[in-house]
Write a structure and sequence with these properties.
Blueprint (H helix, E strand, L loop, with lengths): L9 H22 L3 H24 L5 H26 L8 H22 L8 E3 L3 H17 L1 E2 L5 E2 L8 H17 L3 E3 L6 H6 L1 H16 L5 H33 L11
Antiparallel strand pairs: 1-4, 2-3
Helix pairs in contact: 1-2, 1-3, 2-3, 2-5, 3-4, 3-5, 4-6, 5-6, 5-9
C-alpha cells in the first residue's frame, strides 16, 4: 500500500482552494440577493488568489498543477460569480439576449485563462498580461454593479445609494459587461499587480504608485472609488496599446522607405 505523499505545495494549493470556496460562498449570497456580502467574498477570493502565488514563490513550490488549479478556481470566483451577479441584478429582465450578455464575463474569463495557460513558459512574475486578468474583470463588474447600479446597505448600517440615474443604468450595465469581457479576451497588454516591496517601487515606480493610489481610493471611499480606478486601468491599457501600434506602424513605414529601390536612371544604358 502506497503512503500518501504530502508536499509543501499543499500550502499554496490550500490558498487556491480558499479562493474557490470564497467564490462559492459569493454565489450563495447572490442567490439570496445579498450583493454586498457577495462582493466582499469575491474580493476575499482575490486576496487568496494573490496569496497563493506569493506563497508558492516564497517556499519554492510553484508547479504546473498549481497553475491549472488556480485557473479552475478563478473561473468560478471571477467568471461565474460576476456573471451570476449581473444576471440576478439586471439581465434576467432583459428579453432574448439577457442570458447571453450575462454569460459574457464567464465565457470571456475562461477563454482568457485557457490562453494564459498555454502561454505559460515559467513561474516568475510577469510585468504584463495579454488581455485584462480575470480578477480585474470581476472587480470592474462587481464594483459597478454594487455602487453604481443597485446600491446596498453596509454591515455598519451605512446606506450606499446607486450613483447613476435610473435612465442610464440599462445602457451602462450592458456597456460595462461587454467592455470588461472584451478587455479580457483582447491582445492589449495590462500591467500586473506589483509586489509590495522596495524593489518593485524602484523598478516600476509609476505602476506601483498607481496601484497603491487605487487601493487607498477604494478604502477611503468605502469601495465606491474601485470602479473609477478599474475604468482608468482599462482605458490606460487601451490608449497605450493604440500608441504603441501607431508607433510601430510609423517605424515600419520609415524602415520601408529607407529600403526602397532607387528610381532607375534614364541615362544609364
Amino acid at each position: 500500500m502506497r503512503r500518501l505523499r504530502v508536499t509543501r505545495s499543499i500550502i499554496p494549493n490550500l490558498f487556491t482552494l480558499m479562493n474557490l470556496f470564497s467564490g462559492f460562498i459569493a454565489i450563495t449570497h447572490i442567490a439570496r440577493e445579498e450583493y454586498i456580502l457577495a462582493t466582499g467574498f469575491i474580493i476575499l477570493a482575490g486576496f487568496f488568489d494573490l496569496m497563493d502565488g506569493a506563497v508558492a514563490r516564497i517556499i519554492k513550490a510553484t508547479s504546473e498543477f498549481g497553475v491549472e488549479l488556480d485557473s479552475l478556481c478563478d473561473a468560478v470566483s471571477f467568471g461565474l460569480a460576476p456573471s451570476f451577479m449581473v444576471y440576478s441584478v439586471f439581465f434576467h429582465d432583459v428579453e432574448t439576449f439577457g442570458l447571453i450578455l450575462a454569460a459574457l464575463p464567464a465565457m470571456a474569463g475562461v477563454m482568457r485563462l485557457a490562453r494564459f495557460n498555454i502561454q505559460v513558459v515559467g513561474f516568475e512574475d510577469k510585468r504584463y498580461f495579454t488581455g485584462m486578468p480575470i480578477p480585474a474583470g470581476a472587480l470592474t463588474i462587481i464594483s459597478y454593479t454594487l455602487y453604481y447600479h443597485t446600491g446596498a446597505i453596509m454591515p455598519n448600517g451605512t446606506v450606499i445609494q446607486a450613483i447613476l440615474p435610473e435612465s442610464w443604468k440599462p445602457a451602462a450595465m450592458i456597456a460595462v459587461t461587454i467592455l470588461a469581457s472584451a478587455a479580457m479576451v483582447s491582445t492589449i497588454k495590462y500591467d500586473n499587480f506589483p509586489r509590495l516591496s522596495l524593489r518593485a517601487l524602484k523598478e516600476r515606480p509609476w505602476v506601483f504608485l498607481f496601484f497603491m493610489a487605487g487601493i487607498i481610493a477604494a478604502v477611503v471611499t468605502q469601495g465606491a472609488g474601485l470602479f473609477p480606478f478599474m475604468a482608468i486601468y482599462i482605458l490606460f491599457g487601451f490608449i497605450r496599446h493604440m500608441v504603441l501600434a501607431l508607433r510601430n506602424r510609423w517605424s515600419a513605414e520609415d524602415e520601408a522607405d529607407t529600403h526602397e529601390q532607387p528610381d532607375p536612371d534614364p541615362f544609364d544604358v
